[in-house]
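[job 4471] stage=fold_predict status=RUNNING
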Amino acid sequence: MSLLLVAASLTAVLVAAMPALRELARASRSAEKFFDTLSRELPPTLDAIRMTSLEITDLTDDVSEGVKSAGQVVKQVDESLDNAKKQAQNVQIGTLSLVVGMKTAWKTFTRPKLPRRKIDRLPLPQKGTSALREREPLRQENLREAHRTNENYNDAARWENGFGDEDL
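[job 4471] inference complete, writing structure tokens
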């Protein structure tokens, strides 16, 4: 009897487990199909992702090179502008120097000529205190001439510093 009861219990368990076993078999077939699809589709997808990353890297390098080139072009343009500015300043200084020189030359050529005085010199043994008195007017004349020359230099300095004739 107990053997009969054990056999009946096992039969009931088998009958109850049959639908679960069928579902388990169906799930395993579905998983097998999924793994087959995955093994077929995954390598090309990974290759495509790898190729995309390489293309992105190439594009990034190209953009970096473009930015470097643009930076070099900007640097060259800046240097060219600096050189042009320096050349313009040199031309301006040269022009101003030429104008000041022409102005000074004009003043020199148009100023009235002072008559030259003859200097009566005493013979060497007779020179003494009278020779010193004669030199004093000459020294004053030289100082006046130096002062006039200095005024011309001041005019040139005023011209170079941006002051015109109205400031003189």
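[job 4471] summary: Confidence is low (pLDDT under 50) at residues 164-168.
[job 4471] exit 0
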